[in-house]
TrEMBL record:
Domain F-box associated beta-propeller type: 4-140
Pfam families recorded: FBA_3
Protein name as catalogued: F-box associated beta-propeller type 3 domain-containing protein
Length: 154
């Protein structure tokens, strides 16, 4: 599998090979392309729910992939439910990966995984109506909190 990147300066398309270890795998809801430290990265959370393990593949400037393996702190494993599959919804401006259950259900929640601190926090969204139970996560839209003061000169 390959990614395509576009170099704005040269206006060229470049093919980027995924890491060899991932080349035979199918990108599904257990892997996501995210930004990590201003660089493209593959967030593989295949074993997060069962074992608390995450692999982060970062595309370095030379076109090589570096791998960072993280293990969730044992005290935070209670934030995960083995029967609920998670999907990546994106990242925050602070570099936290936003994870949520694939389907909406009562007492819905969102997880924020801080990759720098290897720390996870859970935010309860609240009780949803029966009408939404079992609906796909794609109906959920998150907007990251953004505070900035911009001074415009006229």
């Amino acid at each position: 599998m390959k990614f395509v990147s576009f170099d704005v300066r040269s206006e060229q398309l470049n093919m980027i090979q995924v890491p060899q270890e991932l080349s035979g795998l199918i990108f599904d809801n257990l892997m996501a392309l995210i930004e990590y430290g201003g660089k493209p990265a593959i967030f593989d959370h295949t074993y997060l729910v069962l074992m608390g393990n995450v692999d982060l593949w970062v595309l370095e400037d030379g076109g090589e992939w570096s791998k960072k393996s993280l293990v969730l702190q044992p005290s935070q494993m209670n934030l995960l439910n083995e029967s609920i599959a998670l999907v990546v919804l994106g990242t925050t401006q602070n570099g936290e990966v936003i994870l949520a259950p694939r389907k909406l259900f009562s007492n819905y929640y969102i997880l924020y995984y801080d990759l720098q601190k290897n720390d996870m926090r859970k935010v309860n969204v609240g009780v949803t109506s029966d009408h939404w139970f079992g609906k796909p996560y794609a109906e959920l839209i998150l907007i990251d909190k953004n505070e900035s003061i911009l001074h415009l000169e006229t």
